[in-house]
Amino acid sequence: MCRVVDLKQAVLAKNDSVAHALRAELGARGTTVVNLLSSPGSGKTALLERELGLARERGVPVAALTADLATENDALRLARSGVPVKQVLTDGLCHLEAAMLGRHLDGWMPEDTRLLFVENVGNLVCPASYDLGESLRVVLASVTEGEDKPLKYPTAFGLAQLVVVTKTDIAQAVEFDEAAFRAHVQQVNPGVEVVLTSARGGEGAGLLLERALAVGDGGPVHTPVMARQPHPHHHHDHHTGDPAHEHTAGHEHTAGHEHTAGHEHTASHGLHHAPGAGHGPGHEHGPGHDHDHERGPGAGTGPGHHGPGSVSRAVHPHSGVVQPR
């Protein structure tokens, strides 16, 4: 059991190291990363599409990277906004990791990108434990998911720097209790801001964009109480100045990510500022697991090389055509 815990600590510690370096690198470029977490079906893609469109109208250089286990549906939807979009297919992996993100950004994201929105895999468990080098972590929940969602997923909501409620246009129909939801959010994350939005009805349009721009301009960022509590297992070092952005005790995450037979996988050569970064020990491969060692244009040890368990596609912002990267 101790060995499993050690493996978890090693994987998370390596991820934190890579995330810290990636945040510094992107910050030096003037890019603010917004990590969007939610359950599947929360409406985050619809909201993000609207925010990207507003950003383009206002002349804000933005880009979006969206992660899913399969299909390129979300990237095609987001590309309608006219901004650079990239799809990452995790092929079964339940979350993004900092090294994976870094590899997919190099050679794709425009140099003048002011905001990068990362739509994480739809899941409130695994993604909550991985710092991606973001400057703002946003957790979304729709009015259909129940007022007790923050209590059921305390790590995800407890580490959020902004909480967004979606689909408020149907709140009355589903009898959403806003007061109860807000109380539960404050119970796990005192002081965090909660904003109401509706991609269809227009409520809260531009709020996510405005909050992200404010962070990029050096505005204050909420520091969750959970992030300030010492814990030996895992910590994040966010740009907020809090040296111990940490997770609570009892965090559970498997040390080995198992893949089914025939899973296709690109070889990992490490992040340019953290050689060897990846899944860490315990990464298991099923029979028939195929490594792709071909190195196309620009491939190498830098962040443009695709990481383990993922395939990326760049989407032309105007045509919506998915192009292999």
What can be said about this structure in brief?
This protein has 325 residues and is of the alpha/beta class. The protein has helices spanning 2-29, 44-57, 73-79, 98-105, 149-152, 154-158, 178-188, 207-216, 225-228; strands at 32-37, 62-68, 85-89, 115-119, 136-142, 162-166, 194-196, 235-236, 245-246, 264-266, 290-292, 311-315, 322-324.
Structure explained in plain terms:
The protein is built from nine helices and 13 strands. The strands form three sheets. It has a nine-stranded mixed β-sheet, with helices on both faces. Strands 8-9 form a two-stranded antiparallel ribbon. With 325 residues, it is of the alpha/beta class. It has helices at residues 2-29, 44-57, 73-79, 98-105, 149-152, 154-158, 178-188, 207-216, 225-228, and strands at 32-37, 62-68, 85-89, 115-119, 136-142, 162-166, 194-196, 235-236, 245-246, 264-266, 290-292, 311-315, 322-324. It is 28% helix and 17% strand. The longest helix has 28 residues, at 2-29. The protein is globular.
What is the overall number of helices? Answer: 9
Distance between the termini: 40 Å
- Percentage of residues in strands: 15-25%
Quaternary state reads single chain
Instruction: Based on Cα principal axes, name the global outline.
Output: globular
Radius of gyration: 19 Å
State the secondary-structure class.
alpha/beta
Low-pLDDT segments, ≥5 res: 231-309, 318-325
